[in-house]
Write a structure and sequence with these properties.
Helices cover 30% and strands 21% of the residues. It contains 13 helices and 20 strands.
Length: 507
């Protein structure tokens, strides 16, 4: 945005007014030219297809294209090498239902008060468009395969729609599979320290949201394989019309189900667990001790290693399915006119601080992988903060569509053209536990977590330049009083921004 200035100094040199006016005019016309160029580009992009791939419970630390050299994810890595890889992308709520409702409808979870396992439609009403619905209303074929809005693990097992939003889709498809009941080797490594508990035969049960490992026989049906096959089929069927196809992969969500061959690269004996720091929990507020941990999960060190190995194996199998879809896209010549997105609904603890699963607001749980590949655009790495809520306006703009002005995300489209820019100074995420809210402000230097709007549940402050593992909570140190005050001011302003919306919800 152009702003008027009465200063007569340009780049530090005293110049005459006429010269500065000339520079101002030149800058104005260059800016105008850039805006017109973007408008022309948006027109050229009309009809651009969208392939949206989202995994479930995938932390960025489990991908070799991010920072894990022990994992084997060549297809996601290849996509990262061809697109824009965002290194600082964060979910808005580290639980499936609220995160997906937020990114699909474009409002923060604490704006809609969507904290449970719902689609979010209940809160935004019938007249607000979801991300997919915007494309549908603009003549796109829109299809969901697998989990996009929330599905429980039993919904996946049974092939049910779960908490889906039917208005978003032209067609929708589920991918039922035996899941925890698949033929193979089974082991429960949570709340089973002596290995005495065996597999339940209840077909309405899919592992009970526990760390259950299933090494299946090679010919067993897998939900993500079914999803990849159906997405590939739809790509072939609809290649001659504009489409928005969403592939909702379930892995590496528990139960950790994958063919035995996927486990080959991950012998659990060779897994190196995160460091165990003495008295690690002493400076963490009670709400910050994750709801699943090695203590209340009664996990032995060997069981911890088996859980990590199974998570990696499930992620490798997911990667195989992503590869199938991308190969189909290439074979059909669709990679030249299709925007490809890969991400996850939130991250996952894998023994860091002896925490497991999600819900917490530390890095492993709140940060996500995010890759956007725009045809014709050079590959890049972008270090700007990004949020999943930004996908709605970003992909709409890249496809030449106008997203509703009322949604709360910011377009990342300028970063695709110039990855050195930034659209956010920090990322924002929330989590609710036992009726109490937690808030995350993640800036380039600090991670600040506050429990309760007045910090009545405590605070956490981590120096992310020197303490990336978040082991030393600085919130109560007098030396960091000014930093805490700054973070609290950012949070206060952010909450005002979030609550300033068109939803009509009292706060």
């Amino acid at each position: 945005m152009l702003t008027h200035s009465r200063s007569f100094t340009c780049k530090g040199y005293l110049l005459d007014i006429g010269f500065c006016k000339s520079r101002f005019k030149t800058s104005f016309f260059l800016t105008l030219f850039s805006l017109l160029s973007l408008q022309v580009q948006a027109q050229d992009n009309k009809g651009m297809n969208v392939l949206f791939m989202i995994s479930d419970d995938l932390t960025a630390t489990a991908l070799s294209s991010y920072e894990n050299g022990a994992s084997h994810t060549p297809n996601i890595d290849n996509l990262a090498s061809e697109g824009t890889r965002f290194t600082k992308a964060y979910c808005q709520y580290p639980v499936c239902g609220p995160s997906r409702a937020s990114l699909m409808f474009g409002y923060y979870p604490n704006a809609t008060k969507t904290y449970g396992y719902v689609s979010g439609r209940e809160k935004v009403g019938p007249d607000r468009l979801s991300w997919a619905q915007l494309f549908k209303n603009n003549g796109y074929y829109t299809a969901r395969v697998g989990k996009i809005f929330h599905m429980g693990s039993v919904d996946v097992l049974k092939g049910r729609d779960g908490k889906d939003d039917p208005d978003s889709w032209t067609e929708r498809f589920n991918s039922p599979a035996p899941e925890v009941h698949a033929k193979g080797e089974h082991e429960l490594v949570q709340n089973n320290p002596f290995g005495l508990l065996t597999l339940s035969k209840d077909t309405n049960w899919n592992g009970g949201n526990q760390l259950h490992i299933v090494k299946t026989e090679e010919n067993e049906i897998q939900t993500d394989a079914e999803t990849a096959n159906k997405v590939s089929e739809l790509l072939r069927q609809h290649k001659n019309e504009p489409f928005f196809i969403a592939a909702g992969f379930f892995r590496p969500h528990v139960p950790f189900v994958a063919p035995k061959s996927s486990f080959a690269n991950y012998p659990h004996e060779q897994i190196v667990m995160p460091p165990k720091v003495d008295n690690d929990w002493d400076d963490i507020p009670e709400q910050g001790i994750n709801y699943v941990n090695s203590v209340n999960g009664e996990m032995t060190v060997e069981q911890e290693k088996k859980a990590v190995a199974a998570y990696y194996a499930s992620t490798s199998f997911l990667d195989d399915q992503v590869g199938k879809v991308l190969q189909t896209l290439k074979e059909e010549g669709l990679d030249e006119n299709t925007i490809v997105i890969f991400t996850s609904d939130h991250g996952y603890f894998l023994g860091e601080h002896r925490f497991w699963m999600k819900v917490g607001l530390m890095e492993e749980s709140a940060r996500v992988p995010l890759i956007i590949k725009m045809p014709g655009q050079a590959p890049a790495v972008c270090h700007s903060f990004a949020e999943l809520i930004d996908l709605y306006p970003t992909i709409s703009e890249l496809a030449g569509l106008q997203a509703p002005s009322t949604i709360q995300g910011k377009s990342l489209a300028p970063l695709i053209d110039n990855p050195t820019l930034k659209v956010r100074d920090f990322a924002f995420s929330v989590s609710q536990r036992n009726g109490s809210m937690g808030y995350l402000i993640r800036s380039s230097d600090w991670a600040y977590i506050q429990y309760g709007e007045q910090a009545e549940g405590g605070m956490e402050l981590y120096d992310m330049n020197y303490d990336k593992g978040q082991y030393n909570n600085l919130a109560l140190y007098p030396k960091y009083t000014n930093v805490v005050s700054e973070m609290q001011s950012l949070l206060k302003d952010k909450l005002i921004e979030v609550r300033t919306n068109d939803l009509g919800i009292p706060y």
